[in-house]
Design a protein that fits this description.
heterodimer; A: mainly alpha; MetI-like fold; 2 domains; 13 helices; B: 24% helix; elongated
Chain lengths: 307, 355
């Protein structure tokens, strides 16, 4: 009791001390209060301001590209942010070969994503559920395609494709992406299948399902969000690839990223077209990522912690 | 419905034997409980019947059909899992009808049978809900509904009540028993809770380390346990065991190391002077001031229906249970007398029954 009242009186003494400062000349008090207000506003919004600043820094190349796409060709290098937006860049794109390249990109990415899932998902399931000798080693070797830099595989692919007649074909390019995407699909989907309790499949077997029927009716629907996230990752990888598309295509199977580079010509660089096509290429990726962002994060961290 | 015959069944997990030559005959329509401590192999045995574990030796017959190499889907048994194993992406109705859908029944027939099962289990209003929207008890009912809707040859239950709270467990126990009485389907029920086994089963199989310790009706196991393990496992609070030496000069008795003489009516096996365990159930103690053995009260646990008392007797702690509300308090001294006719005598080394 005594010590408690002692503490209380000490607080009181400190309070009195503060009051003493505040009771100084009126002008000093006023400026002090203003500074405090400013400081408190800053401290209250510090986090939001930092986020805004970082966002501008991170998004500046993206935003710069988008505004270039809408700028008239004449003042493309004008520093002013004030200009009359125009769709000339996009219109001229539509009149050239770009739509075909865009279509090629769509086709290649869709094909490679579909086949990666068709092959990779059952493989991941088998690796998760079947206990066989050397299972872990097989899973590790599947990753080998992702261990070397892409350029290491260029010459083998180039020569093989020349021999097989797959150069400059959509199918050929899709197969290349398939080989890279398979590793992603198998490794990501393994974590999702591990998250499905094995007893659900056992219950399905007892209910009359075979192994693959249980997979199709029970395990696969339960991993649907993960499947969507994996599909988007595969699609983005194929969609964004420039290197293999440049090496393995000439005219027929040119994809959008390669088509953009073709706007850099000896006669001059078509900045408006470059910006407009760049914006178009980014668009599906942005849309997909925003749509499945929740599942993407879960997909990349699944199995990290116990649910 | 069908009988289940298990002959010389064995199973190893790597080098470790889990089931070591088991023989059980389960009659058509019988309710058999498999009990035993953790790791005794009871769940493995059930999973072998279901087809979820392979068989290393011996055979299982469902009716007259040998099902060793039959896939789970073709065995025509239904199983209720400990964690319910409901399909989270399906509604209650779809969960119940899943097995029938796989069988390729007509949607109208499926709907009719699902509705019947749902009404039997009081799930009529929940058919459109998903498992995550249900309480533990409701999930348990759906899991049971999924089993009964298929009208299988046998039900297999793998500790189905262990995730429920105490009150719900008692309620579901009654419901499962009533369901069995109504449907009469052959049932194998795995539990580690001997009270569940005692209250529900027609016969109990007590397992330990992959071997059968005893098979029998609940009261047979309670009254005439074949060995000290079964005697200690069946019954709650557990049977008391007091070590001593068998005395056959004069009236049979057991002489404890402290020199106390515990009464017996007979000892058909065992020789004078053998080391034995004198077993007596808590409710078979009486208070007898004239000849009772002096025991110090340690803890008094009134449950309402009876009073359980932990006491110090012959150098060890024993439990006694009295229907009367005795006013004992810790530190008191009671004159305990075991009922001689209810005493169990076991060989101290092997644990086999001697009387």
């Amino acid at each position: 009791m005594t010590s408690a009242s002692g503490t209380w009186s000490a607080d009181k003494i400190e309070l009195g001390h503060d009051e003493g400062i505040a009771a100084g000349p009126v002008r000093a008090a006023g400026s002090l209060a203003g500074a405090t207000r400013r400081r408190s506003w800053l401290s209250r919004h510090a986090r939001a301001l930092t986020v805004a600043l970082l966002l501008v820094v991170v998004l500046s190349p993206f935003l710069w590209l988008v505004q270039l796409a809408f700028r008239p060709a004449a003042d493309i290098f004008d520093d002013s942010l004030l200009f009359t937006p125009t769709l000339d860049g996009f219109i001229s794109l539509l009149q050239g070969n770009f739509p075909k390249s865009f279509g090629n990109s769509l086709l290649v990415s869709t094909l490679s994503t579909c086949f990666s899932l068709l092959i990779g998902v059952p493989a991941a399931y088998a690796l998760t559920r079947w206990n066989f000798k050397g299972r872990d080693r097989i899973a590790l070797w599947i990753l080998v395609t992702r261990m070397a830099p892409p350029i290491a595989f260029t010459i083998p692919f180039f020569l093989a494709y020349q021999y097989l007649g797959l150069q400059d074909t959509v199918v050929g390019l899709a197969i290349v992406y398939l080989t890279f995407n398979l590793a992603i699909v198998i490794w990501l989907m393994q974590t999702f299948f591990e998250a499905v309790p094995a007893t659900l499949e056992e219950a399905a077997w007892i209910d009359g399902c075979g192994i693959w029927q249980a997979f199709w009716r029970v395990s696969l629907p339960l991993t649907a969000p993960g499947l969507a996230a994996t599909a988007v990752l595969c699609f983005i990888f194929s969609w964004n690839d420039f290197f293999y598309a440049l090496i393995l295509t000439r005219t027929n199977a040119i994809t959008a990223p390669v088509a953009i580079v073709n706007f850099l010509q000896y006669e001059g660089w078509e900045w408006t077209k470059i910006a407009a096509s760049g914006t178009l290429v980014m668009f599906p990726v942005v849309v997909f990522t925003v749509l499945v962002r929740k599942y993407l994060v879960r997909g990349l961290t699944a199995g990290g912690v116990k649910d | 419905m069908a009988s289940i015959t298990i002959r010389q069944l064995a199973k190893n997990f790597g080098p470790a034997p889990v089931i070591r030559g088991i023989d059980i005959g389960i009659r058509d329509g019988e309710f058999v409980a498999l009990v035993g401590p953790s790791g005794c192999g009871k769940s493995t045995l059930l999973r072998m019947i279901a087809g979820l574990e392979s068989i290393d030796a011996g055979e299982i017959l469902l009716g007259d059909r040998r099902i060793n190499d039959v896939a789970p889907r073709d065995r025509d048994v239904a199983m209720v899992f400990q964690n319910y194993a409901l399909y989270p992406h399906m509604t209650v109705g779809q969960n119940l009808g899943f097995g029938l859908t796989i069988q390729g029944l007509k949607p109208a027939d499926i709907a009719r049978r699902v509705r019947q099962a749902a009404e039997t289990l009081g799930l009529g209003d929940l058919l459109d809900r998903r498992p995550r929207q249900l309480s533990g008890g409701q999930r348990q009912r759906v899991a049971m509904g999924r089993a009964i809707v298929r009208q299988p040859q046998a039900f297999l239950f793998d500790e189905p009540l262990s995730n429920l709270d105490a009150k719900l467990r008692v309620q579901m126990r009654t419901e499962i028993k009533a369901l069995h009485q109504r449907l009469g389907t052959t049932t194998v029920y795995v539990t580690h809770d001997q009270v569940e086994a005692m209250t529900m089963a027609d016969r109990i199989v007590v397992l330990k380390d992959g071997l059968i310790e005893q098979v029998g009706a609940p009261l047979e196991l309670y009254d005439r346990p074949r060995n000290a393990f079964v005697a200690g496992f069946i019954g709650s609070p557990a049977m008391n065991f007091i070590p001593g030496r068998l005395q056959l000069d004069g009236a049979p008795s057991v002489l404890t190391d402290d020199g106390l003489r515990l009464p017996l009516t007979s000892a058909s096996r065992g020789a004078h002077g053998d080391r034995v365990l004198y077993g007596t159930r808590p409710e078979h103690f009486t208070i007898d001031p004239s000849r009772g053995l002096s025991a110090d009260v340690i803890v008094v646990e009134p449950t309402g229906a009876e009073t359980q008392v932990a006491l110090r007797l012959a150098g060890q702690t024993v439990m006694a249970a009295f229907r009367d509300r005795i006013g004992a308090r810790p530190g008191d001294r009671l004159a305990l007398w075991p009922v001689p006719g209810e005493a169990h005598l076991f060989d101290a080394a092997g644990g086999q029954r001697l009387n």
